[in-house]
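[step 3/7] fold_predict: job queued, chain A
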Amino acid sequence: MTTLLTGARLFTGTRILDDHALLLDRARILDLVPADAPRPDATTVKLPPGSLLVPGFIDAQVNGAGGVLFNDRPTAEAVRQIAAAVRRLGTTGILPTFITDDRDKMRQACQAAVAAVAQPGSGVLGLHLEGPFISPQRKGIHAARFIRTPDETDIAELSRLCPQLTANHGRLLLTLAPEQIEDATIARLAAAGIILAAGHTAASAARVRAALTHGIRGFTHLSNAMPPIVNRDPGPVIAALDDGDSWCGIIVDGHHVDPTLLRVMIAAKRPGKLFLVTDAMSPVGTDAERFVLLGQTVLRRDGRLVSEDGVLAGADIDMAQAVRNCVSLLGLPVTEALRMASLYPAEFLGLDHRLGRLAPGFQADLTLLDGDLSVLATWVGGDGQWLG
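[step 4/7] structure written:
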């Protein structure tokens, strides 16, 4: 079935087009055509005047949403529920994120992600394992009792998991602390096709630079769960900003990283290498005021999620709000904020051949925004869903 989406401006991933319409052939974008060109073969859907149709948002770090926490329910159904909850908030593709936990639960999470990725239209793009191979000194809210270094069983299981995901275009992202793992192990994991990110780390800048040469590709929620910048010991944050090839996820909620520092990061990092993540937890998309994470009560207070002793525990933000914050707090152009939510994460995950742009042949994962950058509708694999 051919569908013509018309009436909105189009953001292609590189520029905004006026007086154009998007032609869909089921799950794929067929073409971008002049809005006044007759298409009698297509079902026409008129979008609200003044709206903006953009590539669907991609979130590589989603712990939970809609009242569901992946660590509590490491099942395919829970993953689908999380994806459905954030879809209502503009995100059309996620990596459900499983943080440091029991080994058997981690295995369950891995198989849940494999099953969810295999389901067309689920919005699940793979799996993010945030730990357990992290620094005890920079664990944040992660449970110290589950932190460990990878053994041969871990390496073998993760290496087998990766092709199970990639068979359905899924990706496996693993956050680890480079100082906790030997270079040879990093190289083996990278060679297996796993996307490696440094995070929850106290590594020196020198150690980070060495790990980058062995397969580290990115950085998880840059500056969070990392030591502060010191003039003679710049640490992982400066090492990440100094590297021209790696990608960095950032949480733009006004709490995790001060906006002044975020503006400096944007100025310092090579263009196109900073992308948005939410680090969302189960309260996102609900009115819940608290939840339990690995036995700890987490409170929802003034836009933050914090444990009873004040440790940040994920974030209370969705991707559309992060985009708006990039504009209002950081002064970025709307087009760059949108790229940080779609094109750049797609490039980091190696999915930019089919996601992150409005272009012929790309998957019809779309988000429709109003003039205030609030979400009006989404399409996943060409299937439209309107809010309200």
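[step 5/7] annotate
The longest helix spans residues 103-117.
Residues 57-348 form a domain with the TIM Barrel fold (CATH 3.20.20.140).
exit 0
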